[in-house]
Specification:
245 residues, alpha/beta, Rossmann fold, 5-stranded parallel beta sheet, 13 helices, globular, disordered N terminus
């Protein structure tokens, strides 16, 4: 290949925006990462998964990746120009799933002390400590700073979803969401959507607990409703483009 062609290809690579998947814990992210990495394996993929790892990299280094996936809040990577992706989930169902995940993989294996570093969730039972975590994860503010009100996190997260994200998916609609995501990215659609790292409900939770979770996570509930509207709008846009071809 001629040198000037190589130079052009290299320049195009540097100008291309990486795909960043902001994986909010327990929102179907393991499945999404598996499929994205499988489709983009010919590109440069960042293997970091946690914020304490990714913050050690320079802006230039991060910009040269084709794909970055992990438990990275928006605030940790907002300086990177990228095609951003995230998924939101019904807040109460998500907390119940996180509770069972915590019991099985963290509490039983004496790893509970790792939660703050890995998922940016305060130590303890998710039923008691998770507080509008999706809003905190997607806002401009530090998700671990509890001096910032949920209302501020909500306002910022709404703005970011609407103006800084290429695709906002809904975990409950994963079977239809992932093919639509790949279509939007101009990638071949996955033939199957595997279910990875899922947590099944082991028992019924008291109604009083559900109500308490709803009250405490009111901002996440509002953000989830907002995300569903964005998702619906995106689906209509993709269908319109399909019919125009």
């Amino acid at each position: 290949m001629r040198p000037y062609i190589i130079a052009l290809l290299y320049s195009a690579h540097l100008l291309a925006k990486p795909i960043i998947f902001h994986h909010i814990p327990k929102n179907g992210g393991t499945t999404t990462i598996f499929l994205l990495e499988n489709h983009l394996r010919s590109g440069r993929i960042c293997r970091d998964r946690f914020v304490y790892q990714i913050t050690k990299r320079s802006t230039q280094e991060l910009s040269e990746f084709a794909l970055i996936c992990g438990h990275f809040p928006f605030s940790s990577l907002r300086h990177i120009k990228a095609k951003r992706i995230t998924f939101l989930r019904d807040p109460v169902e998500r907390i119940l799933s996180a509770h069972q995940f915590w019991q099985k993989y963290y509490l039983s294996q004496n790893r509970a002390h790792l939660l703050p570093n890995e998922f940016l969730i305060p130590p303890g039972d998710p039923l008691e400590v998770m507080d509008n975590h999706q809003c905190r994860f997607l806002s401009d503010f530090d998700p671990t700073d509890f001096s910032i009100s949920p209302a501020k996190h909500l306002e910022s997260a709404k703005y970011n979803l609407q103006h800084h994200f290429f695709f906002v998916g809904i975990t409950e609609d994963l079977d239809s969401t992932l093919p639509s995501l790949f279509k939007a990215l101009s990638l071949s659609e996955p033939q199957q959507v595997p279910r990875l790292n899922t947590s099944e409900k082991q028992y019924q939770y008291p109604r009083e607990l559900i109500q308490k979770l709803q009250e405490r996570n009111w901002a996440d509930i509002e953000l989830y409703a907002f995300a569903k509207k964005l998702f619906s709008k995106k689906m209509k846009s993709l269908k319109k483009k399909k019919h125009m071809k």
